[in-house]
Structures are given as structure tokens and as C-alpha cells.
Write a structure and sequence with these properties.
This protein is an alpha+beta fold. The protein has a single domain, classed as tt1808, chain A (Alpha-Beta Complex). The chain has 6 helices and 13 strands. The chain has helices at about 15-25, 45-65, 95-100, 105-110, 130-140, 190-195; strands spanning about 5, 30-35, 40, 70-75, 80, 85, 90-95, 115-120, 145-150, 155-160, 165-170, 175-180, 190. A 6-stranded mixed β-sheet has the order 4-7-8-9-10-11, with helices on both faces. The radius of gyration is 16 Å and the shape is globular.
């Protein structure tokens, strides 16, 4: 099943509470809302994407458990970005000080914060152009590091604050290890784990 996009006219709009209730009423669908009012309806992931998402979150979670530098979020977490969009990265991390600055209510619902680090994992039904736009949106809203992983190519696009996108093309025989750099000190993701579900 493909991702669907519905346009919500500005005159109709959705309040934060209405969007929250819409998401609750339509589980297991994952909904996103763009800054311009497009409601994106994403189907559940397939088996290979689910395994890859899980492996990414395991690796990120194990690193964070040791360092205790922040909070890790899976693909079902909805963030309200500063530009008003609601987005669900496949994996995300927020620095502890920024997370602790939120109220209990903000933490409980859709956190009004852009993650410091995001990963988008391209599945077979994902448009690469739309994922790239989503990565730029994260970057424009404060994400300091982001990886767009495309197992189909295979390649990884690395998004850093104030820099051009770096593209790493590689073969399945020689996948890279990605560094969390200064954003996630000491974190390394071995792409061999992700590419072989």
C-alpha cells in the first residue's frame, strides 16, 4: 500500500488537539501533517523495513543507555516541529537537557521539539524526493545531524547543520560505518547490520 496525501484547506485547519484526536482515532495508521496543511497517511511498514527500523533503534538505544546523554524515539513518535508540521522520523534522539525542558504534558503527547538527530529509512513505497524534503525540513527546524538511509541504492545521505548534503554510495559487500560525530559522541552504526535483515 502506498502513502496517501490529503490536502486540508487553510480555512479548515486542525488545532493541535484535533490532530492528536485524529491520530488516536485512526490507529494503526501513522499520520503526519505538513506545514502547508497536507495530511500524509502512511501504511504500516513491511517486514524488512520493520527489521531495519528495529535494528537501528536497538543500536541507538544501546549507545544511549551507556552514555545517558538523551532520549531515543522510535518511528511511532510524532514530533511537532517549530514550523508547525507534525513528523515521525524512523529513529530520533533528543539531547537530555532539551527533553527535560519540556513540560509533562508536552512529553506525554506529541513533543513540540525537533530532534537533534534523525534517521529516515527509505522503504519500497517511499518517494526519495519527499524523504529528501523531509530531511531538509528537519534540518531547517533544528536537527543537527540526519541520515537518510536508502537500502535500494544502496546509499546514505548525511545532513549536517550549515553544510551541503554528503552522499555515500556503497556496495552491499562493503557497507560503511556511520559516525554520530559530535552530536552523538562515540555512536557508530554499522550499515552491514541494517542492510541484511
Amino acid at each position: 500500500m502506498e502513502t496517501l496525501t490529503l490536502n486540508i484547506p487553510p480555512a479548515v485547519g486542525l488545532t493541535d488537539e484535533q490532530f492528536y484526536q485524529l491520530c488516536i482515532a485512526n490507529e494503526p495508521w501513522q499520520l503526519e501533517l505538513t506545514q502547508t496543511g497536507e495530511l500524509i497517511i502512511m501504511p504500516p511498514t513491511g517486514g524488512e523495513s520493520g527489521i531495519r527500523n528495529s535494528d537501528i533503534n536497538i543500536e541507538l538505544g544501546l549507545w544511549n543507555r551507556q552514555t545517558k546523554l538523551g532520549k531515543v524515539f522510535d518511528s511511532s513518535t510524532e514530533f511537532k516541529l517549530p514550523n508547525g508540521a507534525y513528523r515521525c522520523p524512523d529513529a530520533a534522539w533528543v539531547k537530555l537537557e532539551r527533553w527535560d525542558a519540556l513540560t509533562k504534558d508536552e512529553k506525554r503527547r506529541f513533543p513540540p521539539i525537533c530532534p537533534d538527530f534523525v534517521i529516515e529509512l527509505r522503504s519500497e513505497t517511499d518517494s526519495l524526493a519527499k524523504l529528501r524534503a523531509k530531511m531538509r525540513e528537519y534540518q531547517d527546524n533544528g536537527a543537527r545531524l540526519g541520515w537518510l538511509i536508502d537500502p535500494q541504492t544502496p546509499s546514505v545521505e548525511i545532513y549536517r547543520t550549515g553544510q551541503e548534503v554528503e552522499v555515500l554510495n556503497f556496495s552491499f559487500d562493503h557497507p560503511p560505518q556511520l559516525s554520530g560525530e559530535e552530536v552523538l559522541p562515540g555512536f557508530v552504526l554499522d550499515m552491514a547490520i541494517i542492510l541484511n535483515p
